[in-house]
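This part of the workshop introduces the protein records we will be handling. Getting from the letters to the tokens is the skill we practise here. The record below serves as our worked example for the rest of this section.

…
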Amino acid sequence: MNLKRGNGLAVVLIVIGALMLMGILGPLIGGLLGLVFPIILIALGYYGVRRGKVFIGWVILVIGILALFAKLSWIIGPLLGVAILIFGVSLLRKKRNTY
């Protein structure tokens, strides 16, 4: 095999492809792209709104936000539960101080 200068990208691509075929890298890349794609949609929607394409920009922005919420639902649910718990405790403490 003749390794010349500039073949580094080819070697990296071959290694990534082999790892994906073995099933090691596929879930990692799939999870990462599942988060990156909604973020790209949000950025494109914001760019569209800023450039004057208000309707299509808002549509793409909302689709991106909803997709990101769906991907991050595993953390949004527990965070919402903690926030509700803290709010309830603060309401109880506020009532005790009024006596």
